[in-house]
């Protein structure tokens, strides 16, 4: 068995002979403007079909809804008033006070290179482009029975659509709710006038699990993933995962120095429940506000114990049967 | 969303148009949805989520999977019974248990394949042996079990039809192999009954994952009492004594394991096993388990009584599996069950002094 929890280099753990540096994203939500260019670029590059019918979801500017089989980047919009901003600042301060890895000297950031975010005392939009986390210990990958999901040489997690038989275990295995089995994605044809949807191209990879590949095809050609390439504000940064974590730590220290204690990192800690994520985020509130789990844990970390309990239970079942027959002989 | 003086005279939105409407806020006020007032965009502060949308995704499994959980248990338990009968010379019990094993495992396997996104690729399950995947381990268990159960049942069918199967010289081979095959299936029987518990527990689905320590015991108990119940229905009471013992042991195991499981889970997550449809299924299951157990003890020696008790036990096992299955799916669909227990355990670890294992860090 590979290593099931704790810090590790996932590609090395998967025994890749020609190791490449682990790649990852750093999504800095403090400079995201919610243009959704990443969603569009991702769809275009990966030929992802339309996800259901076109509808307004009544959740600020988010009409995408959630990550899914055909939506590999999802821009979340949250509208907050003064009290929530104060609360976020407070929870961030608590986090800093917990004696987490130090935020560095307050004067460390050079003036002039900072990207000041507009002061939003009474109202703010939280905008965050969510994506597959490419976990160090990926639940989806661990539980996949066919080997369709694999760890790439870049340390990312990729589905082989021609191998996957659509069993759906990975969907339940992901602690972030990212991977999904692709359905037809269209409801029954609308008959009302004006609501008939346009002709859609045939949906590829129907019935198999689909998710972000961190543009594996582009990585193989030394290209940047489509979303990071298109991001106009560099909110989505791409590079070696180690560099991304360094960059994220610098940025959060910079924001703290500006008094923005609500800033915090998500996924940069290799000792967390999934061994750190390949996609690191800078958030401005608690993770659950963005629809992210506050304390995800890869279920496979407990698998050896589960097997032991199952073995005990199975032995008990056999023993009861044995005794029942022996006692009646 | 805009507001204007004319909003109050606007007709209400037609129902059922939203793609992901669902229950947006559990404790929220019901007003505002007609557009007459501005809706609160963020749910109440005591429970924060992203517009009430799920954090984890429910497994895309239909009721076929719940039925398989039940049938796999019946098959595993029946093979064990069949082997016991084979070794102690109970011919009717052996024949009935072997047939029960092959029929239930076959129907179960058909359900499994039918539920795949790409059923034509079901053989990809045997492409690798992967210990981190309970589904992979289970596929191999299922295959190994089916091989033995199939051979043993084929021998029974051949005997029942007066050696009319066109086997030719292979009949001798079949006769020689049926004993070992029955024992082989029995060796994999408990594994077949229990692996699905690990499969469910090894997910991010809150109810299943939280139940990981006790679910194997619930599943083997449920499998034992179902297989024994089925044997009590099909087999004369003279030969079914071991089945009655197994049934009673299964009843006790089921009641104890279920109780321990509920007590050890996070109280909020355990709620999914008590409330709504799954709660009803599990309450009914418990009642039938108790009834079946008492019926076995009191009336198990009479043909009609044994059959009635057996029927109650078989139904109870099916209800348990459907209840646990549904509770898990429900727990994944409501973000409360993901977010609140996780926040609690994170806070508990911090209170205990562990501050270096959070996914959220200050730097």
Would you mind describing this structure in some detail?
The complex is a heterodimer of chains A (329) and B (363). Chain A is an alpha+beta fold. Chain A has 9 helices and 10 strands. Chain A has 2 domains: 10-297, Alpha-Beta Plaits (2-Layer Sandwich); 298-329. In chain A, 28% of the residues lie in helices and 14% in strands. Residues 100-112 and 190-196 of chain A have low confidence and may be disordered. Chain B contains 11 helices and 1 strand. Chain B has helices at 63-88, 91-115, 134-160, 170-201, 206-210, 215-234, 241-264, 267-274, 276-299, 303-333, 335-351, and one strand at 360-361. The two termini of chain B are 36 Å apart. Classes of the chains: A alpha+beta (329), B mainly alpha (363). Chains A and B meet through strand 2, helix 3, helix 4, helix 5 and strand 6 of A and helix 1, helix 3, helix 4, helix 6 and helix 7 of B. Strand 9 (264-266) of chain A pairs antiparallel with strand 1 (360-361) of chain B, so a sheet runs across the interface.
Task: Please describe the structure with a list of short key phrases separated by commas or semicolons.
heterodimer; A: 329 residues; alpha+beta; Alpha-Beta Plaits; 2 domains; four-stranded mixed β-sheet; two-stranded antiparallel sheet; B: 363 residues; mainly alpha; elongated
pLDDT averaged over residues of chain B: 90
**What is the CA-atom radius of gyration of chain A, in angstroms?**
23 Å
Q: Give the domain tally of chain B.
A: 1
Percent strand of chain A: 5-15%
Radius of gyration of chain B equals 25 Å
In the sheet with the most strands of chain A, the strands line up as 8-1-10-9
CATH class placement of chain B: Mainly Alpha
Please name the two chains that share the biggest interface, counting residues whose Cβ lies under 8 Å from a Cβ on the partner chain: A-B, 112 and 101 residues
State the shape of chain A: globular
- Provide the CATH architecture of chain B: Up-down Bundle
CATH architecture annotation of the largest domain in chain A: 2-Layer Sandwich
Share of β-strand residues of chain B: under 5%
The helix content of chain A, as a percent range, equals 25-40%
